């Protein structure tokens, strides 16, 4: 997609700007809610296109609830993609597609949102249940275990000064223990406002060496882990490409009026971010226009890739905010911060509760309630003397009772 760009001095320390971290967090909250909804509805027999629509719709609905003051741009940063089993990703089918989920499918769900140009993208992998409730086994089990192991080992190490090559080497080492391989051409990016997918990327490729960079303070990164039980070299499928992104420069003037209208809509509605054909009001007109637009290379395409049919691919994607003393991880689980090997949940401050009005209580009830509270408030230091005093009083009462009994018997005699 977009060409690499040099980081200007003004862009150094982007997270230091007021409100930027909150916007990243809010975008991640929206993405997490959409992911949960799609995961909840991802069941055998469901149409993939319906689940993709659900993901995009949820993002838009949740974005409309926040940052309502001022003109802050908020949209889908990456349309919902649902890829099953050996399919790698970018599968966001057209409205008439009839592809459904099946029992035991390995399902990868990827989607993203942005607020004021600040991007949060997440991807999760789930395994659909079977009628026999059988546990995953074989290659499917290995790749799901591998993706979890890589995430757990990698997350605490994503700190200031960590080299991108070290990240990739760790991924490869752990993946190999599960007889899996990282996919080539999968990228981790330094995020930048209004730039998708980002800049300063690491590219895993069988012929091209790693591009090395160091995690810098006050910067945001997109971490994308994709593992395969195959050779890690995906190939194009017969599925139609439906996700596109406009190129930065498009000096060519299209001949067809419909194509010019659609291109204008792309520029104004989607700006620099990917979009799916379903996003247009008239999908059929958009399809016709995209033929001319693609022929003149005015957009980048996101082809649907896959491994061999008997292999499995798993994915985990999340955003990290690197600060001088810690790193904040944004994912489906919310947000965590970690320093070294210690990881802890970061919980938002609970809302302040307004003082409750005290109910009017009658003097008698108040007195009895106060006596009960006083008796419950006795601490352990005062407990022993009180018990001792009670015992002495009981002993005196028993002695007095005996005296009265003897006196009564004497009077009878």
Describe the structure using short key phrases.
globular, disordered N terminus, three-stranded antiparallel sheet, alpha+beta, 413 residues, 8 helices, eight-stranded antiparallel sheet
Question: Could you outline the blueprint of secondary structure elements for this entry?
Answer:
Elements: H1 20-41, H2 48-63, E1 74-84, E2 87-89, E3 106-115, E4 118-127, H3 138-154, H4 164-177, E5 181-182, E6 187-192, E7 195-203, E8 219-228, E9 235-236, E10 243-246, H5 257-270, E11 275-276, H6 283-295, E12 299-302, E13 305-306, E14 313-322, E15 327-331, E16 334-339, E17 342-345, H7 363-376, H8 380-412
Antiparallel strand pairs: 1-3, 2-13, 3-4, 5-8, 6-7, 6-8, 8-14, 9-13, 10-11, 10-12, 14-15, 15-16, 16-17
Q: What characterizes the major β-sheet?
A: 8 strands, antiparallel
Strand coverage percent: 15-25%
Q: What is the distance, rounded to the nearest whole angstrom, between the alpha carbons of the first and last residues?
A: 116 Å
The helix-strand sequence is HHEEEEHHEEEEEEHEHEEEEEEHH
Please give the oligomerization state of what you see: single chain
Work out the helix count: 8
In angstroms, what is the radius of gyration?
A: 32 Å
Number of distinct beta strands: 17
| Regions with little confidence, pLDDT below 50 for 5+ residues | 1-10, 341-359, 373-384
Mean pLDDT equals 81
Q: Helicity level, as a percent range?
A: 25-40%
Shape: globular
Give the helix/strand class. alpha+beta
